[in-house]
Amino acid sequence: MSDPEIPSKRERTLSVLLVNNLIVSALVFALLEIWRPFYFLTDDNLGGCFPLLSGMGHRLAEGKSPFVADYIFGGNYDLLRDCSLSCWHPVYLLASLLANTPAHFLMVDLVAFIFLMTATAGFVNLAHFLRQELALQLSDARLMLYALSFNYSMIVLTTGSSWIGFLGNHSALPWLALGILQTSWRRGLCLVTFFSLHHILGGHIAPTISDSIFLSLFAVGISIYRRSFLPLISWVSGYAIALLILSPFLIPAWHGFLMSDRSDGLTVATMSKFAVPAMLFPFSYFFSTFSVLLFPHYQFGTTQLFYSSAFVSCAAAWAIIPAAMSRKRWRFLEILCLGLLALLAVMIVRPLWVSSIMLHLPLLKSMRWPFREILQFQFFLHLFLVMRPLGGSARFQRLAIFAGVFIFVFPLIFLNAPTFLPMQPDRELLFSGKADLYWNRVKPLLKPDDCVAVIADINMIDAHPFEIPYTLLEVYNFPILAKTKNVSGYSVTVPRDQLYVKIVPVLHMGIFGPEQKAALLKERPDVKFITLESVKPLRITLSSRDGPVTDLKPFVAP
Fold first, then answer.
1. Which of 220, 316, 429, 544 is deepest in the core (most CB within 10 A)?
2. How confident is the prediction for the chain on average, in pLDDT?
3. Taking a C-beta distance cutoff of 8 angstroms, is the pair 141, 153 a contact?
4. What are the CA-CA distances from residue 543 to residues 250, 438, 441, 500, 552 (Å)?
């Protein structure tokens, strides 16, 4: 009889795998931070999530509810009713406690680190489980490569720099798949329930919904393969329990979403605008960030296509070639993953007929970016690579894997951090303390109850997308940092009954056009205006209906 305190060889192997992979994954994260300090503080994370976490932390320190925003959308804004701004996960609350410390700029990156380590642990557990159950010829080294590739693939780097919630979805996927694959209903139900809670609380609303659809298809496929309803029951029951537990959060958010303009859906043109071009899809898969160097002229809306041509790529991309060359018998699970990949590829390319179908489906009609499908594509791609043996000679296999890693990593040395909007002026203003100094000088010009609207010409914003000091304009959710009230904020799912003004800004970050100024004054006569008069040279003014125009440029520290 074995000593119960001595772990079995299988358990010891898994524990060693977990420790090794977590250490290496943490080192990669550290390299990203060295390459670009506060790596995830760009784009939506900087303008949206960082101020929210700051506000939550300040309110927690004051003994108040963290789910109220005092300075956006006129103040006293209920975050629990806005599904775009929901930061319910305990990890968000934990990170927000840094808001009152010198380490406050680490809040978003701390969330990213915890989510990425959760993803690493989940993928290693899933791969180890499949290696044992299917007797896979998968070495520890290749398992680590796939785990790193999954965790730091381009979609994670890009969407992680755009909105941290995508990492919440990313980190839950391997755990949810592991729960579906369990042969013990207790273990399967517990895994699905627990990580569904994590998935819903920590994830972005769009991929949360989309993940549930594709994981349902995965559960149906596993049930067919095993000729048992257990996988489907574990998935449906666990997810239903999680929804029931979270209903006090979800019901207000659902009600708020139904009262938002986004619930009415988007146009077909908008839903197709951000799809990855079909001809670029296979090329970018194999050539990753080199496609950015080869197609510098390609435009994505008003912004150059930073890395979006490499969304579907990953460090393990070229392993698909020896995997396709394998003469081993195809397993049902491999075919299932390929089928899901094909469906996801169609959703990512999103031809017009797909957008037309989505336009008539609840919830899906409100989603435009293909980020969620690319995230799921990455997951099922790596799951397929874990299961499929490699063909060809050992030398060819190593060459293919090396080529994928090299093509993925090498261009990063010469390119900026992958993000649509680096917001470099705002990073410099915030990190240097100049933004705080600026607002300390400007706030005496405002009364405590004054509410500000920001005015700028949309053509000027489009002409200088990377040079606008949004922090000084008080747009996005930056009013929370400045502690000054703004008539708007950064959300696409604002409940109509919580809008401070009924007029919708021309730009999503909360900027109104000059043509909207008269209507704003008619609705709110006491509103103050911060106007971006020009970018080069920078000229920002503060004005009201009857008061003088004050040039704010002298308040900017040199």
1. 316
2. 90
3. no
4. 40, 17, 16, 19, 10
